[in-house]
Amino acid sequence: MERHLGEARLPPGKTLDGFDFEAAPVISKAQVMALAAGDAWLAQGANLLLFGPPGGGKSHLAAGIGLALVENGWRVLFTRTTDLVQRLQLARRELGLEAAIAKLDRFDLLILDDLAYVTKDQAETSVLFELISARYERRSMLITANQPFGEWNKIFPDPAMTLAAVDRLVHHATIIEMNVESYRRRVAMERKRGPGRPPIRATIKTAAE
Question: In this structure, how many other beta carbons lie within 10 angstroms of the beta carbon of residue 72?
Fold first, then answer.
């Protein structure tokens, strides 16, 4: 497990025990813990998509799930989407894109953090789309994004590519919408106001097959 933890590149200190479920009370902790076991959805190559504004805890939750999965024997890779896209672009220039994507198959789960920060550039989005297509119904992905699907045209320049990417991701997916106030902003406001926490709402939905 120590080797798998090293290769996962998970951000330090981000565990499910340390995640503030009270800040997003509609998110089912029991559902998250079931996802952290991984048996059903990872075996089927299903996906997990986390949406919400910056600072809402998406990356923390993704990393916490990733850590729990590694502890349960699964192989995981956590990466910023822009970093992985740049590596895949380099592989394409060196005529090794197919091999680079195939190498990622050793990971049961690929966590792409901050999808929305990929630039709307044909070269970047095309390698991202090829990665999504290659893992479709074979290997799982966990994606965090600030923007809902309706705004993914800001990521993919081609409308047809946008629809195709969304279709592949949601075909077998659990979607968690973390429509919560920024944790960082909330902490700053609480320091000014003193004790107390503003009301927070979140929604969860599952995309059925």
Answer: 13
Q: If we measure between CA atoms, which residue out of 69, 73, 63, 68 comes closest to residue 1? A: 73
The secondary element (H helix, E strand) that includes residue 132 is: helix 122-135
Per-residue pLDDT of the chain (209 residues; tens, 9 = 90+): 788 999 999 999 999 999 998 887 778 999 999 999 988 999 999 999 999 888 889 999 999 999 999 999 999 999 999 999 999 999 999 999 999 999 999 999 999 999 877 766 777 788 999 999 999 999 999 999 988 888 887 778 788 888 999 999 999 999 998 875 544 444 444 555 555 444 444 444 444 44
Distance CA 35, CA 91 (A): 32
Going by C-beta distance under 8 Å and a sequence separation of 6 or more, which residues neighbour residue 80? 112, 113, 114, 117
Q: How far apart are CA 61 and CA 18, in angstroms?
A: 9
Residues 45 and 93: their CA atoms lie apart, in Å, by: 29
Please tell me the pTM assigned to this model. Answer: 0.83
Task: Please calculate the CA angle 170-75-21 and round it to the nearest 5 degrees.
Answer: 60
Please say whether the beta carbons of 71 and 38 come within 8 A: no
What are phi and psi for residue 170, nearest 5 degrees? -95, -10
